[in-house]
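Example record

Each entry pairs one chain with its bound ligand, pyridoxal-5'-phosphate.
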Amino acid sequence: MLMSKPESGIFYRDYATRLPVAESAHGVWIETSDGRKYLDGMGSAGVIGIGHGRTEIYDALAREGQKVSYVYTASFTHPWQEKLADAVLSVAPKGMDAVYFVSGGSEANETALKLARQYHVERGEPKRHKMIARWQSYHGVTIATLSLSGRTSWRAAYDPYMLPVVHIAPPYEYRCAYCKDHGGCTYSCVDELERAILLEGPETISCFFAETIIGTTASGVTPPPDYYRRVREICDRYGILFIADEVLMGYGRTGRAFAIEDFGVVPDMITCGKAIGSGYAPLGAVIVNERITNFFREGQRRFVHGFTYSGHAASCFIGLQVFNIMQREGLFTRPARIGEYLHGRLRDLQQKHPLIGDVRGRGLYAGVEFVADRATRAPVAPGFNFTGRLVSAMRERGVIVGGGVPGANFGKDGDHIQISPPFTIEEEEIDILIDALDESLVQLAGQLDAQAAA
Ligand SMILES: Cc1ncc(COP(=O)(O)O)c(C=O)c1O
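Structure tokens for the complex follow.
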């Protein structure tokens, strides 16, 4: 089989797209059955941290892992989740105290929002049910996590199902309505958090959710240094829990175990997924701070929740192997160093291509936003499908990057890509990626000129 077939038994994600068949993958490379080789510049949706093809993980699973492959974690605990929790807590910010394992990012966020709710209810504050999140954000596909997500294009069809979530502006300085005339960030978007709380009634708010650094909805938007300290103060003032979604940015991607470390605050919960299993097993986690953990621990309370696969033994065993590799090879911090090279090369490319409006992100997560006019920051007309064309042009050159979700510019338009390769990527491989981006931008600039002349 060389390509996906519409008549196949798979209910495909998108019947408009024919997909090549991945046959093997090693390091940052994916090989397909038609003999092509692709550089995985998006780390397969930001999942792959330790690189593809680390077969030693499955060797270890065959040797020791099958001692307990699955037990129901309402009936038993098992060594793998216990050990993995200790490992994760050893790199988590001080003050985080316990870990609830799940199978992925949406489950992690769903678990966190329910834990926040039950915490308030049991403490005698049952009115606290509303959540606050930000526009241009993504927290998952379940109804509750999509309700949190400020990704308008994905919400549209499900709008009647959305839960009461208040959305505020993200710290998107490049397109911020608050600070564009003030020569820099004025932190007005954080003031908006407090205003939203006051308008809704502080006693009705359960939690504030934020991607520490924004992912695919506005690739790489990074708040100014004081942003989360102010968020933390506001949340504390009104008894609201602060939940940092690090499904994409956590577990080493930014060059820190957790991206929030750079902002000097401790959230009430950190959710993670993706790199914690690095694609070797479906795994996600909610890391809970000591205040909430102790409330349940000391009160001998039961969290009324739990998936059949919460704390799946084989997934946790694999998570432990991933953790050990990350520690042994310094992969929790390597993205900071190698990421400097990536960002440096992107900034150089920005000098050459006026189409590049903004380069942002941290470590091995780089977001690049494109504009038709750098001075006015006017986006390319959406009809041109700039992001789609760019991703295809790079793919033709053997490089996969993530196409940013349309509508970064407050739902209207806006083109951007995410570059989020495995943490093992080498400088020469970054050069291949940058060359493909460079050539593709030359091609697209030509197409735009041709269109303007027509
Ligand atoms: C920031 C963020 N949160 C949550 C999710 C949802 O995770 P999953 O797809 O594993 O359910 C994602 C997935 O891309 C994400 O990037």
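The longest helix spans residues 427-453.
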